[in-house]
Amino acid sequence: MGQIEVAGLPVWHEVSGDGDPLVLLHGAFAGASSFFAQTPSFVEAGFRVHVPERRGHGHTPDVDGPLNYSVMADDTIAYLDQEVDAPAHLVGWSDGAVVAVLVARRRPDLVARMVLIGQYLNSAGKVPGGELIASLESPDMIALLRRSYGAVSPDGADHFPIVHAKTMAMIAAEPEIALDSLRSITAPALVIQGDRDEVTVEHSVAVVASLPDARLAVLPGTHALPVERPDLVNALIVSFLRNDDTTPDWSAFTG
User: Fold this and answer.
1) Where is the AB hydrolase-1 domain positioned along the sequence (predicted)?
2) How many domains does the chain have?
3) Pick from 113, 131, 151, 224: most CB atoms within 10 A?
């Protein structure tokens, strides 16, 4: 783990394991640590796991100018080109799922398979009255996020209000991806969401219908599904990435 330079910008990343490359893409106000319940499991399953932290997130410093999904996708493409020597599996959670979709559209040669977790691709997919965005603007949550940011960011806690404002502006305006544009994506996809997530099940069904090769899993849980049920989520993802069509023994995950 450590800081590298990608396309002239400092980027923090963590790499562990051996095998086919698997890149984990985190959500807003998060970083590599948000995948604490996934990384060891995927390494044990035989993948080389990369977890880059995007600009203004985790240990990676912010960059002047507005934040949007397009620029984060470009940053991710530059990282894949430089650090990953083969088409990689992408697993995107929340904002990371939007980044994965944009990367798969722009550079299909870089993506083997992709998993999209708990994210709408346009505003039609938002759950009416969803609590996540409101919670991110509450004073208590802002204070918590500021402490977490200041603990690791080279920009320090005093810079957090700038990152918070840029991120909330992005979330308010984006994403607005037309689902018919997904038809150009060649990578097989797995869409996962919780049944009490921030995205409607109907939207995820429409996303899967728009992708040429995709399947859907709706599991009991919320937007925090990967940490609520990592046993189930990780097993689904590993099975999908291995292209394993056999029926798993789900008895271990029930009860």
Assistant:
1) 22-235
2) 1
3) 113
What strand order describes the sheet that includes 214-219? 2-6, 9-16, 47-53, 20-25, 88-93, 111-117, 189-194, 214-219
In the 8-state DSSP scheme, what is residue 108? G
Contact between 215 and 208 (Cβ < 8 Å): yes
> Per-residue pLDDT tens for 48-107?
999 999 999 999 999 999 999 999 999 999 999 999 988 999 999 999 999 999 999 999
Is the Cβ–Cβ distance between 1 and 14 less than 8 Å? yes
Percent of the chain scored above 70 by pLDDT? 96
Which SS3 state, helix, strand or coil, does residue 224 take? coil
Q: 132 and 116 in contact (C-beta within 8 Å)?
A: no
Q: For strand 9-16 and strand 47-53, is the pairing parallel, antiparallel, or unpaired?
A: antiparallel
Of 148, 141, 113, the C-alpha closest to 23 is: 113
Categorize the per-residue pLDDT at 138 as very low, low, confident or very high, splitting at 50, 70 and 90.
Answer: very high
Neighbours of 210 (CB within 10 A): 17
> Which residues are bridge partners to 126 per DSSP?
199
> Residue 114 maps to which CATH number?
3.40.50.1820
pTM of the model: 0.94
